[in-house]
Design a protein that fits this description.
It comes from Alkalispirochaeta sphaeroplastigenens. The protein is mostly helical. Helix content is about 55%, strand content about 0%.
């Protein structure tokens, strides 16, 4: 099997196991479906809750890395930081677009 030849690859997903019980959860657990939001307000609030959850997870993992470095995998810490940064950037862009849309609407008068 050649790595460069995608035809030779089997299409099964790899099962990634948690190496330590304190590592970032979510590697092997299936995603929970939360249903569709009823309106834009609910979608926006749910998005902000997700951003907050990513920020808290990164903060808790960072504190744990300082207190007990052997219990935290560096990759998990990096992934948590990237998730927190990306979700915050997306939220900032959405807020900027909403504010710009509001300004555009108010200037139409």
């Amino acid at each position: 099997m050649s790595i460069m030849n995608p035809a030779g690859m089997n299409r099964q997903a790899l099962q990634v196991a948690r190496t330590h019980q304190n590592h970032l959860p979510g590697r092997t657990e299936p995603l929970q479906s939360r249903g569709e939001p009823a309106d834009f307000r609910d979608a926006l609030l749910r998005g902000l809750e997700d951003v907050n959850a990513h920020q808290k997870a990164h903060e808790e993992l960072s504190v744990q890395a300082v207190v007990r470095p052997e219990s935290v995998d560096a990759h998990d810490l990096t992934i948590a930081a990237a998730k927190a940064n990306t979700s915050l950037s997306i939220a900032k862009n959405v807020v900027d677009r909403v504010i710009q849309a509001y300004r555009d609407i108010t200037s139409l008068r």
